[in-house]
Here is the input.
Amino acid sequence: MNNLYRLVMKDEVAGEVVLKLSDLLRFTLYESNVESIPIKSEIKFLQDYIELEKIRHHDHVSIEYDFSAIENEENKIAPLLFINFIENAFKHGVNKSRRGSWVKVILIQKSDFLEFNISNSKPTFKKTVNTIGGKGLNNISSRLKLLYPDKHLLTIEDKEEVYSVDLKIDLI
Here is the structure.
């Protein structure tokens, strides 16, 4: 990655993309292979991913995120809890839309709970098969049951124009 970065240093945007990709890979390979991490580490990872999507989609997609309502950034959580939901918002929502689409992500942490909410616009064309969830959602649901048994509530809404996920985790 460092070699690639040196090759693209003259292009500011390309350099930024390489640095963010490098950070994502480093986190995924070296920092997420533990039982728990500080919330601030997860937030940095998610911000890097979302910023890459912003670069990719420019101004034709409204991408908003708010991670400011974090009471204690040092609270520990399992790593990579939210990335599947964010990836899905882009893969199944934004990337399949031909016009103005949007994604909104919010993470809130108060003393004893964490709440993650993501919603995205859906493509205007109709699919022939309407299914909720694939392997990614099944995997994260199973993972939540193992990591936070009886301490989480996952709500998924698949409406005509909006797809949303709300995940609440009891941190006690």
